[in-house]
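Structure request: DUF423 domain-containing protein, Leptospira ognonensis.
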Amino acid sequence: MNPVKNQSYSNYLLTSAIFGFLAVAIGAFGAHALKGIVGPERMPIFETGNRYHFYHTIVSLLVVILAIQKGMNRYLKLSYFAFIIGILLFSFSLYTLAISGIKIFGAITPFGGASFLLGWIFLGLGTFQSFEEP
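Returned structure:
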């Protein structure tokens, strides 16, 4: 395999690995330290952010695996970045809202949700394009 091609995939994999590490670390913080800090009404907000963080980190890894197997196309690339942006906007806005209680952070969350939706659409298009006959 082409080393330049492998290097570009390693950057995607590294980014996904960092996001996976953060999902575990933030989840552990929520499970052990946060319960004594925030009230029970805000814990589900935090947990929702963490759950979507995990889901979309895993799917970002699957996008890279598909790209390694079939080649990266523009839709797979858009899908990958939409999932990463979605994590930043959706999950991190919910983390911040849950910890701070500042409701304006909840206004950011739908933009992350829209990014997740676009990511799934792009993944479908990218998968279709990857498996087309040459």
